């Protein structure tokens, strides 16, 4: 790929930076749709975020940037605008730089997640969903699941207070979804979603016990590396339908392209 003065430039801001995969996925995507965009990871410390963003405003061939750990919340105070979705989730993962240097933040995690389920024929509307985890990614998936019409959403988390706070926030915004926090038997659900980091390392324990889960249940794990976690391996062995985190990342690519083109 040839980067010229006409190439639109994007970054992915992160700290640490060596785990970043979104830039490679974005470059591959933009090449596949023949769009002249180049994306580079950018190692930025939290304390330097304001200064870096002030500079990016002045870089006239920059069209936007992705934001990942640990900047998803911290970036908000430096932006001119956040979309209603990002404000609701309380985190931004993509920022568009307009031609006049304004910075507009959105969160594409929720829509990317729901789109990836739909692409794999995994229904959400009217279904009972069990989500494990209530961190940054979990906030996005919980709002996404309620928005997509889940009938019931149970949120289970190591730190129970965080699960309760998230359940309350989702329930306030989507009163038609019955939202609970606490432990539950996995086999009673149509869809199980892992949003914790458990499964990134091969010796991690499973994020939840899926005994009794079978073909009537779909199991989703939003971890991207490895593409097939132990949870998904076990679920598949028990006959459940499974989906990993890579499709969620892929689904966001089209959303990014549309967001920066608008
Ligand atoms: P992210 O932005 O990737 O969601 P995060 O906000 O740090 O990252 O959230 C990580 C999630 O994984 C949380 O739900 C966290 O549980 P706590 O809220 O109790 O911290 C969960 N998690 C991380 N390590 C865990 C572990 N060893 N056991 C259980 N849950 C864990």
TrEMBL record:
<dbReference type="GO" id="GO:0050661">
    <property type="term" value="F:NADP binding"/>
</dbReference>
<dbReference type="GO" id="GO:0004764">
    <property type="term" value="F:shikimate 3-dehydrogenase (NADP+) activity"/>
</dbReference>
<dbReference type="GO" id="GO:0005829">
    <property type="term" value="C:cytosol"/>
</dbReference>
<keyword id="KW-0028">Amino-acid biosynthesis</keyword>
<dbReference type="InterPro" id="IPR036291">
    <property type="entry name" value="NAD(P)-bd_dom_sf"/>
</dbReference>
<protein>
    <recommendedName>
        <fullName>shikimate dehydrogenase (NADP(+))</fullName>
        <ecNumber>1.1.1.25</ecNumber>
    </recommendedName>
</protein>
<comment type="pathway">
    <text>Metabolic intermediate biosynthesis; chorismate biosynthesis; chorismate from D-erythrose 4-phosphate and phosphoenolpyruvate: step 4/7.</text>
</comment>
<dbReference type="InterPro" id="IPR046346">
    <property type="entry name" value="Aminoacid_DH-like_N_sf"/>
</dbReference>
<dbReference type="GO" id="GO:0009073">
    <property type="term" value="P:aromatic amino acid family biosynthetic process"/>
</dbReference>
<feature type="domain" description="Quinate/shikimate 5-dehydrogenase/glutamyl-tRNA reductase">
    <location>
        <begin position="117"/>
        <end position="197"/>
    </location>
</feature>
<keyword id="KW-0521">NADP</keyword>
<dbReference type="GO" id="GO:0019632">
    <property type="term" value="P:shikimate metabolic process"/>
</dbReference>
<dbReference type="Pfam" id="PF01488">
    <property type="entry name" value="Shikimate_DH"/>
</dbReference>
<dbReference type="InterPro" id="IPR006151">
    <property type="entry name" value="Shikm_DH/Glu-tRNA_Rdtase"/>
</dbReference>
<keyword id="KW-0057">Aromatic amino acid biosynthesis</keyword>
<dbReference type="GO" id="GO:0009423">
    <property type="term" value="P:chorismate biosynthetic process"/>
</dbReference>
<keyword id="KW-0560">Oxidoreductase</keyword>
<dbReference type="Pfam" id="PF08501">
    <property type="entry name" value="Shikimate_dh_N"/>
</dbReference>
<feature type="domain" description="Shikimate dehydrogenase substrate binding N-terminal">
    <location>
        <begin position="12"/>
        <end position="95"/>
    </location>
</feature>
<dbReference type="InterPro" id="IPR022893">
    <property type="entry name" value="Shikimate_DH_fam"/>
</dbReference>
<dbReference type="InterPro" id="IPR013708">
    <property type="entry name" value="Shikimate_DH-bd_N"/>
</dbReference>
């Amino acid at each position: 790929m040839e980067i010229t003065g006409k190439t639109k430039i994007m970054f992915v801001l992160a700290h640490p930076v060596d785990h970043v995969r979104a830039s490679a996925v974005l470059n591959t995507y933009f090449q596949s749709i023949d769009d002249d965009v180049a994306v580079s990871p950018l190692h930025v410390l939290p304390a330097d975020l304001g200064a870096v963003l002030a500079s990016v405003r002045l870089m006239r061939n920059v069209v936007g940037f992705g934001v990942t750990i640990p900047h998803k919340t911290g970036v908000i105070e430096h932006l001119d605008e956040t979309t209603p979705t990002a404000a609701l989730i309380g985190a931004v993962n993509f920022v568009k730089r307009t031609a006049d240097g304004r910075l507009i933040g959105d969160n594409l995690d929720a829509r990317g997640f729901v789109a990836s389920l739909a692409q794999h024929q995994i229904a959400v509307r009217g279904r009972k969903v069990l989500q494990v985890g209530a961190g940054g990614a979990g906030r996005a998936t919980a709002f996404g699941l309620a928005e997509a019409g889940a009938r019931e959403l149970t949120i289970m988390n190591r730190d129970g207070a965080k699960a309760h706070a998230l359940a309350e926030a989702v329930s306030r915004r989507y009163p038609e979804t019955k939202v609970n926090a606490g432990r539950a038997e996995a086999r009673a659900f149509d869809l199980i979603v892992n949003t914790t980091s458990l499964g990134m390392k091969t010796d991690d324990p499973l994020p939840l016990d899926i005994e009794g889960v079978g073909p009537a249940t779909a199991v989703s794990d939003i971890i991207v590396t490895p593409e097939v976690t132990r949870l998904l391996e076990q679920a598949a062995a028990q006959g459940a339908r499974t989906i990993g985190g890579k499709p969620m990342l892929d689904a966001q690519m089209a959303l990014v392209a549309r967001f920066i083109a608008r």
